[in-house]
Design a protein that fits this description.
Blueprint: E1 2-5, H1 10-19, E2 24-27, H2 41-55, E3 60-70, H3 81-84, H4 89-98, E4 106-116, E5 122-133, E6 149-151, H5 158-161, H6 163-169, H7 171-186, H8 197-207, H9 211-216, E7 225-233, E8 236-249, E9 253-262, E10 267-276, E11 281-288
Parallel strand pairs: 1-2, 1-3
Antiparallel strand pairs: 3-4, 4-5, 5-6, 7-8, 8-9, 9-10, 10-11
Helix pairs in contact: 6-7
């Protein structure tokens, strides 16, 4: 799937492309972006998304706003993180200068992703990463404030932990997984899945695989689409929808997405199976509400 990212930041585009398997993401380069006047990350992301929709009507649009919130600075720079100082060394130097002699260095990263489907419907995903600000920059990977941000439970900065770590644990990675879960509830229930022969063949191999896939295969359709089902939610049996979708990733991989949605779509649980095209599962991520009992 191809989407336009409402940003000139190529780092974000490439990072999101890694976080959203099967997506091709291109930055929307423009000198006409409106000012980001929102007082929340969502408001600023929506401003960018609306601009992207006007520039590329009928396309998939992605917009992201993120920031660093430092407790000792009353949450600054926050939504002003990108305008706090020029990105990189100047912003880090300003931040460390403000925190000089300050013992309390708690902080968190926040990311808000907004996706506009071609039909105009909005889907969102939010992610946070808590940690602290180091005394000096360390590491060479990542970008922004990564050289001085030490995640909770770690001794190294994000820039030292590296891009492979970020793809699993960063605030943007968490926002991307939340967005995928939300898309699983919205897109799949709309019946938007691949229908080509290769997709159907890969799905048949997947559901004929290990015990987990075979068990899920008793409830989920073995081709892109939806089936009615029931789940147990808080001790009650409720009507639900079980949806299957697949994204083929060249040259030899695929992502199988299975979503159970109930309470009229207000609750959903999604499995993302990263597989080879022979159906072999390489890894799985789960997002959304706790997995219900069938």
């Amino acid at each position: 799937m191809r989407a336009w990212l409402c940003s000139r930041n190529a780092h974000k585009a490439r990072e999101l492309e890694r976080l959203l398997p099967g997506w091709e993401i291109e930055p929307l380069d423009s000198d006409a972006y409106p000012p980001e006047t929102g007082d929340t990350y969502y408001a600023n992301a929506r401003i960018k998304a609306d601009f992207g929709r006007s520039a590329a009507p009928g396309e998939w649009i992605l917009a992201e706003d993120s920031g660093l919130e430092v407790a000792a600075l009353d949450g600054r720079p926050g939504v002003q993180s990108a305008r706090y100082a020029p990105e990189g060394a100047p912003a880090i130097a300003k931040l460390l200068g403000e925190l000089e002699g300050v013992a309390e260095r708690g902080a968190r990263y926040v990311s808000e992703l907004v996706c506009l489907r071609p039909d105009g419907e909005e889907v969102r995903g939010t992610g946070t990463l808590t940690g602290r600000i180091a005394g000096e920059p360390r590491g060479t990977e990542g970008f922004g404030y990564d050289p001085v941000f030490v995640p909770e439970g770690e001794d190294c900065t994000v820039a030292e932990l590296g891009n492979a770590w970020k793809e699993k644990h960063s605030h943007r990675a968490r926002a991307a997984r939340a967005l995928l879960a939300a898309l699983g509830a919205v897109v799949l229930l709309a019946g938007c899945g691949g229908t080509d022969r290769t997709s159907k063949r890969v799905l048949r191999a997947f559901f004929a695989g290990g015990p987990v896939a075979r068990k899920l295969g008793t409830r989920f359709p073995h081709a892109p689409g939806t089936l009615p089902c029931t789940v147990r939610d808080r001790g009650k049996t409720v009507q639900a929808t079980c949806a299957t979708d697949i994204s083929l990733v060249k040259p030899a991989r695929a992502v199988v997405t299975l979503t159970e949605a109930w309470n009229h779509g207000a609750k959903a649980h999604t499995w993302f199976f990263f597989i080879r095209r022979d159906g072999t599962v390489q890894s799985v991520i789960q997002e959304g509400a706790p997995a219900p009992q069938s």
